[in-house]
C-alpha cells in the first residue's frame, strides 16, 4: 500500500506512460491509457476492494465491475485503486481506514470527498483518467477542490454493477479527467445498458465528442437564485468566477437568464434522510457472519450471536459510517418512517419537479460547485453539519438524478482551484459537455498543474 498521503493504493504510472496516454486521448482513444479506480469499484485483478473500510479489509473481488470491464475492453490499463471516505461517506477523504489523501494544491487541505483519491490522482497528473462514484457530489466536489473535470452522468446512464452499494437510488459512477474532451471519451466508453443492473437504462449512447463544437449558440442557461442565498453565503472569488462564466457564455452565443428552484433549501435535509436510510439497509449485510469483518472468537468465547453482530460492526465501521447507519435506521424505524423517510421522499419529488419546470425554459443550469474552496484538515471534522453543507450545491442534482459536471474556473487568492457546475436535463450529457467544453476553451485553467 502506498503512503497514506498518496491517492494511490497501487502502482503509480511513469511519466512516459502519461505522454503516450495523452496522444491516445487526444484522438478519442483509451488504448494504453493508465486509469485509476476508486476503491469502491471492484476489480478482479488481485487488488483488494475495501471501500476504505476495516469491514472489507481482506476482500478481493472475484469479478470486475461493468465500468472496469468496459474500460479494459477499450484498451485502458487499471494501474491502481484510489482512496476515499469509508463506504463513500464523507466530503473530505478524512474518513478512511487507509489514511488521508492530501490536496495536491496544498497538502494541508482536503482533496474533497468521497472520491478524493481519484481527484488527487488526476490533479497531480499521476494518471490522466480516474473513475469515482457520485452519490451527493462525490465526484463534482473533489473535482472542484482539486481543479479537474468531474462528470456525474444521469442516474441509469452508467451501470452500477460492481459498485459497492451505499445509497442505491443515488449512487452513480463518474469520471475525473483533465479536459472535457477526455470526459466525453470516457463517458462514451462506460455508458449504456447492462443486463446485470436493473437500474441502467436501455437508451442510445451518442458520440459525446461530436457535441464538443466550441460554441453554445442557441442555448439558454439558467442561474438558480437560491444557490446564492445559502446560509453562510458563497466565497467571494467563487461568486466572481460565476459572474465571469456568465459573461463568457453570453459572448459564446448563449442566453443567460435567472430561474428559481424554490425547494433547493430542503435538498440537504432530504439527502441526509434518504441517503442514510438506504445506507443503513445496504450495510446491514456486513454483520460478521454473512459478510465483512468478524470479531475474533476463541474456544472460550461466551458471547451470543448478537454480541458477534455488535462487536464486529463496532470494530469494522468507522465513526462516520456508524453515525449514518444510526440516522438511517432511526428514520426507517416503526413510528418514524412516515415522519422522516416518507416525508423526505415526497420533498425529493418536489426538488425534482423544480428542475423539470426550470428545464421547460432553459437548456442548462450554471451554479457554483461548492460554496468555498478546499478547507483544511480537521476544520470541519468535529462539526458534521458543516461538513454536510459542503455538498449543498451538488446534492440537488443527485436527488433528481440529473447529469452535472464541474469544470475548473480559476483560483482564489490562496491559489486554490475554483469549480463551476453545469447541470443538464435527464440524458442531456451531450449538452452539458458541449457547454463545459465551450467554456473551457476560453481559458487555460485546466492546463495548470499543482506545485511539485
Key traits:
Amidase signature (AS) enzymes, 33% helix, alpha/beta, 452 residues
* Head-to-tail CA distance between termini: 22 Å
**CATH hierarchy: architecture of the largest domain:** Alpha-Beta Complex
According to CATH, the homologous superfamily of the largest domain is Amidase signature (AS) domain
Q: Helices and strands: which structural class? A: alpha/beta
User: Helical region count?
Assistant: 13
Characterize the main sheet: 10 strands, mixed
CATH fold-level topology of the largest domain: Amidase signature (AS) enzymes
Q: Supply Rg.
A: 21 Å
- Portion of residues in beta strands equals 5-15%
Architecture overview:
The protein has 452 residues and is an alpha/beta fold. It has two domains: 15-264 and 346-447, Amidase signature (AS) domain (Amidase signature (AS) enzymes, Alpha-Beta Complex); 267-343, no CATH class. The protein is built from 13 helices and ten strands. A ten-stranded mixed sheet has the order 2-1-3-5-4-9-10-8-6-7, sandwiched between helices. The protein is globular, with a radius of gyration of 21 Å.
Provide a brief overview of the structure.
The chain is α/β, with parallel strands linked by helices.
Give the SSE map.
Blueprint: H1 15-26, E1 34-38, H2 66-73, E2 77-82, H3 116-123, E3 129-133, H4 140-146, E4 149-152, E5 173-177, H5 180-190, E6 220-224, H6 236-251, E7 255-259, H7 267-282, H8 305-316, H9 319-332, H10 338-358, E8 364-368, H11 384-388, H12 395-400, E9 404-411, E10 417-424, H13 429-440
Parallel strand pairs: 1-2, 1-3, 6-7, 6-8
Antiparallel strand pairs: 3-5, 4-5, 4-9, 8-10, 9-10
